[in-house]
Design a protein that fits this description.
By secondary structure, the chain is mainly alpha-helical. The protein folds into two domains: about 10-60, no CATH class; about 70-155, no CATH class. Helix content is about 65%, strand content about 5%. It is built from nine helices and two strands. A two-stranded antiparallel sheet has the order 1-2. The protein is elongated.
């Protein structure tokens, strides 16, 4: 039996469905296309060969399936709320996804400070039996700055 090759429209539909389920960034879409076995290049309407991911990304941005501001805000919220990450680790994660620095900084400015410091205080309390050096190293690995740690310790 012959394998059915998807058209550009079918690849786009697949990407739209993927983006409709939850917030994703352009890097996520590129990775998914690769995992799904999409061809790297595809002829456009004029017959010119163009990277498939690039064309799909442009359409997803136009149709608001991809939105860097919205993704950065969701990423910051989820990393604070569920993984209890600090600012530095969140920032590194967003930069690794090659998102615009302006959107990264804006999302970090808008993070929920109350939840952020509540999480930090919980982590400090959970590690109370560790030596101070070990606790500080753990918190630094979680992405918390020394200023944030000092603020949480003295609150």
């Amino acid at each position: 039996m012959e394998k059915h090759e998807l058209s550009k429209a079918e690849w786009l539909d697949k990407c739209e469905a993927y983006c409709a389920r939850s917030e994703h960034c352009a890097a996520d879409v590129r990775r998914k296309l690769y995992e799904w076995g999409a061809p790297p290049d595809f002829p456009d309407e004029n017959g010119e060969i163009k990277p498939l991911w690039q064309e799909i990304e442009e359409i997803l941005y136009q149709r608001d399936f991809l939105n860097d501001v919205r993704f950065c805000q969701a990423y910051v919220h989820d990393k604070v709320e569920y993984q209890r990450w600090g600012r530095m680790k969140i920032q590194a994660g967003l930069r690794a996804l090659q998102l615009p620095e302006r959107e990264i900084q804006e999302a970090l400015k808008n993070l929920d400070e109350i939840a952020y410091f509540a999480n930090l205080r919980k982590l400090i309390k959970e590690r109370k039996n560790d030596s101070e050096e070990k606790r500080l190293r753990f918190l630094a690995q979680r992405g918390f700055t020394m200023d944030d740690i000092k603020r949480a310790l003295h609150a």
